Amino acid sequence: MADRVIIFDTTLRDGEQSPGASMNVAEKLRIASRLEELGVDIIEAGFPAASKGDMEAVSQVAQHLKASSVAGLARTNKEDIDKAWAAVSGAVKPRIHVFIATSDIHMEHKLRMSREQVVESAVAGIKYAKKFTDDVEFSAEDASRSDRDFLCRIFEAAIEAGATTINIPDTVGYAIPEEFAELVKYVKKHTPNVHRAVISVHCHNDLGLATANTLAALSAGARQAEVTINGIGERAGNTSMEEVVMAIKTRSNCYPLTTGIDTTKIYPTSRLVSMLTGMIVQPNKAIVGANAFAHEAGIHQDGMLKNPMTYEIMRPETVGVSSSTLVLGKHSGRKALNDRLRDLGYRLSPRELDTIFTKFKELADKKKNIVDEDLEILVSENIMDISEMFILDTLHVVSGNRVSPLARVGMIVNGKPVEKESTGNGPIDATYRAIADITGTESEMLRFTVSALSGGTDSQGEVTVRLKEKGLVALGRGADPDIITASAKAYINGLNRLEYLKRHPVSMGDMI
Ligand code: KIV
Ligand code: ZN
User: Fold this and answer.
1) Is any ligand 1 atom within 6 A of the Cβ of residue 80?
2) Which residues pair with 422 in a beta bridge?
3) Any atom of ligand 1 within 6 Å of the Cβ of 141
C-alpha cells in the first residue's frame, strides 16, 4: 500500500515572511479554515514569540480548528516555547516546533555557539516543550549546509529528548535533488533511533528547485513535506503545496505515496491566499497559474478537442479549475451565481447573496463574460469589507502625453460628501493625493500592484495595495474595467481596513 505523506503547511508562518505579505488575524483564520477543508495535516500558524499579532493569530487558529494539528514555531529558549505553548494549547492537536541552526556558518557567525552548546540547547528546548505536549518537531536550520555527522548527532539527541518529527530544512535553497536525497538517506542510515521519528523536509526555492528537492527527499524516505500555497515564502519562496501534491498524484507510478489533500480545493485555496496576501500568482505558475490549462497554439487546440489527453496531463477539474473559464454572463440567474460561488469556496448568507447578485448584474452590464476572478473581487469588495467610513463617489481624471495629470475625487466621508482636486506624477498619483487629502490619512504605500484579471481589453484591472499607518498594515483591493478607478477603489478599501484595525487592533471579525 502507498505510504501516506504528512502535509505540513507553513503558508501562515514562512509564507507570511514573503515581503509585504503580512496578514491580520481574521485573514489568517480564513486561510487556516480553508487549509483544514483542503485536508492539510498540520498547519503552522505563526511564530508566537515574534509579535503580539502572531501570538493572537496562532491562538485563534488553534481554538477554531478541529481536524488539523496546529503548530507554533519557537527557538529553543524557554520564553519562546512558553509563548508557543500559550498560543497552541487551545488546539485539539497542538504541536510545538522548535528550531536551532546547525551549520558551521550559522553557529559561528549568527549564534556564536559551539556545536556542544547547540546540541545542549536543542535537547533542553525539546525536553521543555515535551512537558506541554507529546507532539514536538525539531528543525535543524540550514541542515543542507551542515556537517552530516553533526546533523545525525543532533537528530539522535533530539529524538532521545522526545522529538517526534525531525526536520531537514534547505533554509537557503542551496541543495540540488540528488544531493538532498542523499542527505535524507544519510540521516536515515546514521541516526540510530531515527525509526522513532518522522523525517520531514522543508525547502526554499532560491534555485527554483524546492519542489524537485522535496520530491527527491520523499523518494528517499522523508514522510513529511513542509509546503506553502502558491509557493509563497521567505525570498524566492518555499516548496509549493500544489506542485508536490499533484506530482505525487499525477506520477503515482514513480511516487508510491498518497496525501490527505482534496485536490479539487487547491485552486480556490490558491485564489484565497493570493487575494489575502496580495501576492499575485504568475500566469505560467504550475497547477494554479491562469495559463496552466490554457492551450494557445492551434495545433494544441485541435488535439485537445479530439482528445484532451493529447496535451493535458491533469484535468483542470482535478485541481478545482472549472473546465470553462467563461462562467457567467448577464443572463445568468441567482442560482447559477450561488453554485459558482460555492464551487469557489464561498458560502454566503441569503442577504450576502442578494448584495453580490445585484453587483454581479451591474458588472455584467459593463463586461460580457464574468470569470471566477471577477466573482472573487465582488465578494472581497462587498462582503469582506469591514468598514465603510470612506466611500468613493465620483472620479474625474485628466491624463495624456501633453497634459499635467489632474484628478478630481468626490467621496463620502462618514456620511458627508467631500470633493478635492490634486495634481500628481501620473493620474494614479494625482488620484491618491486627492484621496489622502480628503481622508486626512497618512498611510505609507508598502506595495502597489496592477494586473489584468483575464485576457482581452474588456478585462477588469485588479489593483492591490498594502498600506501602513501607525504600525498597522492593511491590504486593499479593487477591480474595475477602468484601471484608475480600480486603483482608487483599492486605496480606499485599504484605508477602510486600516480604520477598522485602528478600532479593533486584534479583532478577528466574523470573516472565517
Ligand atoms: O527555512 C527554515 O530553516 C525554517 C525553519 C524555521 C524550519 O523556516
Ligand atoms: Zn523556511
Assistant:
1) no
2) 407
3) yes
Coil/strand/helix, residue 370: strand
Lowest-pLDDT range, 184-193, 368-377, 391-400? 368-377
Residue 122: count of CB within 10 angstroms of its CB: 24
Nearest atom within ligand 1 for CA of residue 167: 7
* Long-range contacts, stretch 474-477, CB < 8 angstroms, 24+ apart: 474/24, 474/498, 474/500, 474/501, 475/23, 475/27, 475/276, 475/277, 475/278, 477/275, 477/278, 477/377, 477/380, 477/381
DSSP-derived secondary structure for 97-121: EEEEE-SHHIIIIII---HHHHHHH
**Residue 171 Cα to ligand 1 middle (Å):** 6
Residues 6 or more apart whose Cβ sits within 8 Å of residue 335: none
- CB of 44 within 6 A of ligand 1: the answer is no
Fold assignment, 3-277: TIM Barrel (3.20.20)
**Model's pTM, two decimal places?**
0.76
Distance (Å, rounded) from C-alpha 385 to C-alpha 476?
10
The CATH label, of 3.40.50.720, 1.10.10.10, 3.30.160.270, 3.20.20.140, for the domain at 390-503 is: 3.30.160.270
| CA 323 to each of CA 89, 327, 382, 474: distance values in angstroms, whole numbers, following the listed order | 43, 9, 27, 34
Beta strand 94-101 with 406-413 is unpaired
Query: Is there an atom of ligand 1 within 6 Å of 169 CB?
Result: yes
CA of 141 to the centre of ligand 1 (A): 6
Contact indicator for 12, 23 with CB cutoff of 8 Å: yes
Question: H-type helices in 330-466, by residue range?
Answer: 334-343, 350-366, 372-382, 427-439
Among all chains, which residue has been given the C-alpha cell 482534496? 262
Atom of ligand 1 nearest to the CA of 238: 1
| Cell numbers standing for residue 53 | 499579532
Half-sphere exposure of 219 (CA within 13 A, CB side): 20
What pLDDT shows up at residue 295?
Answer: 60
Classify residue 331 by its DSSP letter: T
Which residue in this structure is represented by grid cell 527557538?
A: 75
pLDDT tens profile 123-180: 999 999 999 999 999 999 999 999 999 999 999 999 999 999 999 999 999 999 999 9
Per residue in 401-421, pLDDT (tens digit) is 999 999 999 999 988 999 999
Domain boundaries, the chain: 3-277, 297-313+329-382, 390-503
**From CA 444, how far away is CA 474, in angstroms rounded?**
11
Secondary structure string (H, E, C) spanning 224-285: EEEEEHHHCCCCCCECEHHHHHHHHHHCCCCCCEECCCCHHHHHHHHHHHHHHHCCCCCCCC
| Paired sense of beta strands 198-203 and 224-227, if any | parallel
Distance from residue 463's CA to the centre of ligand 2 (Å): 29
Is residue 139 lining ligand 1, measured as CB closer than 6 Å? yes
